[in-house]
Amino acid sequence: MSKMEDEKGEAPKFQGFPYKPYSIQIDFMNALYQSLNNGGVSMLESPTGTGKTLSIICSALQWVIDQRHQQKSEKRVESDQHCAKGGEFDSDDEPDWMRNFVVNKDDQGQDKKIKKSKIRVGIGKGNFGRNRHAGCGELLSEDVEKDCCRRKEGKNVSSDVVELSDKEFLLEEYESEEEGALGDGKSKRKTLGVSLSSSSDEEGGDGSGEEDEEEGKLKVYFCSRTHSQLSQFITELRKTVFSNEMKVVCLGSRKNFCINEEVLKLGNPARINERCLELQKKKNDKVSKIKNLGAGGRLRRTKASSGCPMLRKYKLQKHFRSEISQQGAMDIEDLVHLGRSMKTCPYYGSRSIVPAADLIVLPYQSLLSKSSRESLGLNLKNSIVIIDEAHNLADSLLSMYDSKITLPQLEDVHYHIEKYFERFRNLLGPGNRRYIQTLMVICRAFLQTLCNKEDASFVDSCQHNAKASEANLASYSSMAINEFLFSLNIDNINLIKLRQYLNESNIMHKVSAYGDQVVSLQKSLASKGTVECGEDASTLSNFRALADMLLSLTNKDGDGRIIISRTRPACTEQRGGYLKYVMLTGEKIFSEILDEAHAVVLAGGTLQPIEETRERLFPWLLPKQLHFFSCSHIVPPESILPVTVSHGPSGQSFDFSYSSRSSTKMIQELGLLLCNLTVAVPEGIVLFFSSFDYEGLVYDAWKASGILERILKKKRVFREPRKNTDVECVLKEYKETIDKLSAGGLKDNPAQTGAILSAVVGGKISEGINLSDGMGRCIVMVGLPYPSPSDFELMERVKFIEGLGNPNPMKTSNLSVNDEINNGGDAKAGFDVLRSCRHRGKEYYENLCMKAVNQSIGRAIRHINDYAAILLVDTRYAYTSDSSKGSFSHPTSKLPEWIKGRLVSTDNYGDVHRMLHQFFKHNKNRGF
Ligand code: SF4
């Protein structure tokens, strides 16, 4: 009996599916069900428009229900046997799947144990004496010192002018145990207080009132990238019986959930988080004071002490929870609406349902980031984790662990810490004084790194030679963590303890609050014409950026790189330097999820190449241990026409590579191709360009040559705006134009037969817009959208990936990257890196390009009756796999199966035109 079959030998039935499923949907549901039976990792691919979401819901939730039934019946049998025996339960009597799972998990846990990197040299009390850092005060170059002084001049209101209450800003005494030792970093504050994390997503809330976790409850976590994708999931869920049968909760960010208008109007997600946490902090401070007064007695916390009015009434939160249980699956909008009508916070309300929920629907960030999981109280033990839209999972995951601090942010933090220390130095205890001085030392060291371009030894120590960018007048270099710390002479600082101090001492809030107070006093003085003050940035956000950077520096040496971006001397006015930590390996991060969950499913429209994902996220799994399933498209073959177009109507070949894409002749040829398409293609044509700049160049050239005028006779032209917020408006007009044409033509121009949408790969339209039916009858991909080789950070990733599993990665032969020839500065450095790659690095670079192509062309054909032509315009699409172009693998080998299998390649433009005519004629005759 296969695992997928039940006791009677029958395959699972997906009764929850609201319609009669197509065979590929049944195949997909069976594959998912099987994956959940097996546990571990699986990757399931199903093209967009094939009902993937509904299939996921009906298979995964059916599996949960089946497991529960099985568990119940097995418990009944056990209970009967137990009664019959009159003895103890035998541990062997566990359900097979549970026992196998536990055994497997234990094994996996052994295999995957990854030792955490340990700390560097400790902060000895003695280490912080004058001698150790005698030079630190002088670490700042003269320039930086002057600059800091300039900041202070005219802005500083001396402490004897500012009338501020010392008490309000004073820190409670702090000391960490075993100072100077590597120890466990335990610390204590002399008076009781509330610890507050610096992470913007962590909480100060007390969590009271949460529903109890039902022990061992099997939960499903479904996550996707955007809130609109999560809403679509809930819409699909509501079509099924599971909407009411399961306890469902949707989680999201404060930005999406907050109903406190005062907080919401801050606009920026980080500031909304901060403000909400500050309000919780005020609540907790009150609690803390009561606690201190209580002489050791137990504290009774009351919501009445909450800083946010939307959290004051516990009863309302309780009522909110019971409403959700009654109303079935609700998306974020519904929850916000409910929260507003009840005047209680939907953010905390929905979070409190998590322990009792069967299905938790949440964005990537909340599930993949460990700190978010902890702050939300997500327990992945034995759960099912389904990650949708997983086509870029490795990069998305890693970017969550990046951190960055800019020069202005550093200057701001440094300035405020100094002012704070100046003012309170004599009132602070030795623990606080020592840590604050350490923070100042670190800030100065970072500042010097970003500003002091004269320090040759520092520059020489960079592993990668800095290359000046002609475009942004900045230079970049990178280092490993230890190298960075040594070069700054801060390797003796115990960053783990320092980070702990930032979390526990409340220093960030005290310094920021003091700074804000000073600034507001300055402003009031300035309004009387005394002092000018231009401080807009939030010191707390800047402080958080510093704390995040310090946290990154506690990672294992080889896990990531520090990127140092300095502005060149000629443009120091721009103050654009920054330090960025780039996380390069997702293995450890992902193993934390796999160690807990029973099964992790990566789902998406296009998941290829799976090998890259395996190597970057779960390399310990052998390829055969990874369950991969790919289903074909729901539409019949005659509904798709994918063609490579290597030549235009006048025979000019298309080569949109870096070196030749500006060719006027070729741009005109592309224009001629489009003129022909306006005749052959009904309704909407969507063009995808590699960048906004290139789209602009082509558009202007067509305008100047008169080609645009010819195009406009047949189709209206719309262009994707750079601002995401303007996209909706353009799309609406584009759709309305096509709808009007379908309904009888445009009155103002009856000759027009449709519209053209000129879009950009990586822009909003390419990422998640549904271009079904008339909106996307023909998708034209112009060239191969390779990411810019001048992207320093990308090249760091390429180098790292090239080195995966290879002890000597960069001793490579000269392989070209699709024969791209570079002309300038840092692009040349990028191409040098790519040429030196032998295998994985270059493959990764090519995968990025083809994933972007697949995303863009996947916007069309969204349902069974849809049809579209897909034109891949570039000679490089037409080459065979053994072509002499030198590409590691042919780009079309990375197309999704359902396109690859039907791809037509021809050198003759006449063939393309003929095929298009036949294709649209045939589909018109089918009546679609
Ligand atoms: S508690 Fe809720 S409503 Fe109040 S500020 Fe925070 S997120 Fe907004």
UniProtKB/TrEMBL annotation:
Entry cofactors: [4Fe-4S] cluster
Gene Ontology MF term list: ATP binding; DNA binding; DNA helicase activity; hydrolase activity, acting on acid anhydrides, in phosphorus-containing anhydrides; iron-sulfur cluster binding; metal ion binding
Broad class of the protein's primary localization: nucleus
Skewed-composition ranges (Acidic residues): 200-213
Keywords associated with the record: ATP-binding, Helicase, Hydrolase, Iron, Iron-sulfur, Isomerase, Metal-binding, Nucleotide-binding, Nucleus
One cellular component term from this protein's GO annotations in UniProt: nucleus
InterPro entries given in the database record: ATP-dep_Helicase_C, DinG/Rad3-like, DNA/RNA_helicase_DEAH_CS, Helic_SF1/SF2_ATP-bd_DinG/Rad3, Helicase-like_DEXD_c2, Helicase_ATP-bd, P-loop_NTPase, RAD3-like_helicase_DEAD
Protein name: DNA helicase (DNA repair), Rad3 type
GO biological process: DNA damage response; establishment of sister chromatid cohesion; nucleobase-containing compound metabolic process
Family (UniProt): Belongs to the DEAD box helicase family. DEAH subfamily. DDX11/CHL1 sub-subfamily.
Region described as Disordered: 72-96, 175-213
Taxonomic superkingdom: Eukaryota
UniProt-listed Pfam families: DEAD_2 (PF06733), Helicase_C_2 (PF13307)
Bias (Basic and acidic residues): 72-88
Iron among keywords: yes
Subcellular location: Nucleus
Keyword Hydrolase in annotation: yes
